[in-house]
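User: Please predict the structure of the protein below. I'd like the answer in structure-token form so I can feed it into my own downstream comparison script.

Assistant: Understood. Taking the following sequence of 405 residues as input:
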Amino acid sequence: MALLIALVRRELRALWHDPWQLALISYIPLLGILCLWWLFSAGLPRQLPVAIVDQDHSQLSRMLTRQLKANPVTDPQSFTDLSSAISAMQQAKVYAIVVFPYDMKKDLLTGHKPTIDVRYNSQFLLVGKLLSSQIQLSLGDGLLHVAGLKQLANGTPKSQVAVNLSPVKSQTTALFNRNNNYIGFLVPPVLVALWQLLSMLVMANSLNRELHLAPTNQNNGIVNTLTEHFWPKVLAKVVLFTPILMLQGSFILAWLYLYLALPMAGSLALLLVAQLVMLLAVWSLVLFIFVVMRDSARVISFCTALFAPAFAFMGITFPTHDMPQLAQWWRLIMPSSHYIESHVSVVSYGAAWPSVAGQLSSYWGFICLLPFIYLLSRQLLPSTVSANNVVAVVDSGVALPAKGQ
């Protein structure tokens, strides 16, 4: 216990003298959380620019344009020709194009079927899907009026027109996002992905520091050699940084579900338990990568590449079962993909402890890493220490004996 306390104090002194590490555990997470919330604070995208190419110039095309203008999601902008509208969409000045063809009103009234060309930029996944549905909804409401006039002209009784146009009416009600609020839909997984990335950087930086300490120096009797008290040093890092990172995770939950009062069906205590298990899984994965690579630049680069696509692999905006097999395996490696299942079940379905405990069992693969980490550390870390000693001797100006001497 005395050794562990001394190692924790050693970590605190190192943290105090490392401005970047201090930033990672203090103001960078706070700024990141607030900035991401501010980006989605509107709740629902509004006034998205849509190019209108009116080749008909009729009363009908102007009425349909007004229908789009009345929709709070779309902001129609007139273009004289299709080529200029396409150029604007390629430059991201507009997100969709609606083309009203020549003689559209005449074809509708004479029984023909004109085609209204609607294009949207699917690279912006959520914006594209939203515009696609809202444009179809607005145009459909406007065309119903024309269809009703045509039926009246053909002698259909007025009481029968509404039945013919909409024999079945449907109502869509979102169960867990009644207002289609993007804050409750996107912000929690985005913040979880950010939190995981910051946690990885904190632990990776702390482990990498051990590679650059002078092995001959001692700090309160603790030798800086990498293999000396390696596992107690790792334990001290876990003891120090786990409460700090859990405080960040708790702040995310409190901000979303207490301050912003987003819908919450379950218990925040269960989410804190799930966060703790996820954090320990992140620690084990970073430690495994560190032991295998033992190079600060490679460790940071590999961990960043591994954790960077965490949000895309959570299955929030894209169904994971449609991903390629390699992507599904990659997804299983990231702790956030396991955590988000517990998060959604608790927040949306009000899952209790038995259900969450069953989901937490999916972390068994990270527990299996521990024996491999121990064996690899016994085999690989001594070679790294020997290489560092050779470099230290060369840097000090001591000539190495020639081969055979």
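That's the full token string. Residues 364-395 form the longest helix (32 residues).
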